[in-house]
Amino acid sequence: MAHDAPQAAGPSKLVIRNIGLILSGALEKPILDGDTIVAENGKISAIGRFKDVNTEGATTIVDANGTTVAPGLIDSHVHPVAGDWTPRQNQINWIDSYLHGGVTTMISAGEVHMPGRPRDVVGLKAMAVFAQRAFWTLRPGGVKVHAGAPVIECEMVEEDFKEMAANGVKLLGEVGLGGVKDGPTARKMVGWARKYGIQSTIHTGGPSIPGSGLIDKDVVLEADTDVVGHINGGHTALPDDQIRCICEGCKRGLELVHNGNERSALFTLRTAREMGDLHRVILGTDAPAGSGVQPLGILRMVSMLSSLGELPAEIAFCLATGNTARMRALDCGLIEVGRSADFVIMDKAQHSPGKNILESVQLGDLPGIGMTIIDGIVRTQRSRNTPPAGKVPEVVAK
């Protein structure tokens, strides 16, 4: 299994030079002017032209060779269990494989596949605290897994949420995967969670696993969770009129997932764009699941939404980075000074008909990943999962 990735032993300074294109992750300005990024002690300290930034004292220098640097991708919807193993598919190293798909941060929507998952209040609270602690101690490949997302049950009271928050729990698993499936109870508990700084997500659509059930627009709107989880279904989506009603009836996050209904994802995208609400759209995979593990799931969503949704590629990447970072209150996902130095370095795939990476993605091709960086540390070089890139970065000094 992949083990905890090493952290920097002392002061560090990363310089990425000779960048061909910088994608910021921010909808308001998705492309930045510059050819160099500097990060010190895991945080971005400068972005600009090589001649204008201080590169002295670098401990690591990466020559981007004219490739594209973007924020590390964020998967807003995963179901981790124990380290880098998933019992859902009895597969190991799935998180490390996601890193090779450009994902540097993951958000748990509930550790629902844990064998023997406790349903009693004491047990589910204990498991949430355990998962939060375990995944912040163990970072497979360096990937940041925000876990410890309990699935709420009807017997819970306000004091349970206060206790979990005091012990570091910051997420709820998908509302609807446990005993709470009605709007009034969900709204009450979501309110308690919000009061103590715990963010919430709701299951949307038909049942996905035994124990889950149909969660329709009425329950979603009344529950008022922070994120409308897989609004395009996981896997079964709601009818279009219900999806539109959710988009128009709340101002919460609209999560599109790989393991959902593609047509419904495109419908949601069009609706959000018509409303001027692209900032609400975030991306996840909803894996591991019955359909397996999708290491390239976020890249595939970016490509699909760009090519079939007619969304400029630089905007599509924002849905997988900055939008999620802002909605989830993360310090990554955007290339700006002070943020975590988490990057994916890419180029158009070899032989793609697109003239550059943006055009190739808008044509439906996946980019080739040449390197991932987390906290200013190079974690992987040429991806074992993506098509080979036309150009690749290289570490030229360390």
UniProtKB/TrEMBL annotation:
<dbReference type="InterPro" id="IPR011059">
    <property type="entry name" value="Metal-dep_hydrolase_composite"/>
</dbReference>
<protein>
    <submittedName>
        <fullName>Amidohydrolase family protein</fullName>
        <ecNumber>3.5.2.18</ecNumber>
    </submittedName>
</protein>
<keyword id="KW-0378">Hydrolase</keyword>
<dbReference type="InterPro" id="IPR050378">
    <property type="entry name" value="Metallo-dep_Hydrolases_sf"/>
</dbReference>
<dbReference type="GO" id="GO:0043792">
    <property type="term" value="F:enamidase activity"/>
</dbReference>
<dbReference type="InterPro" id="IPR032466">
    <property type="entry name" value="Metal_Hydrolase"/>
</dbReference>
<dbReference type="GO" id="GO:0005829">
    <property type="term" value="C:cytosol"/>
</dbReference>
<feature type="domain" description="Amidohydrolase-related">
    <location>
        <begin position="263"/>
        <end position="376"/>
    </location>
</feature>
<dbReference type="Pfam" id="PF01979">
    <property type="entry name" value="Amidohydro_1"/>
</dbReference>
<dbReference type="InterPro" id="IPR006680">
    <property type="entry name" value="Amidohydro-rel"/>
</dbReference>
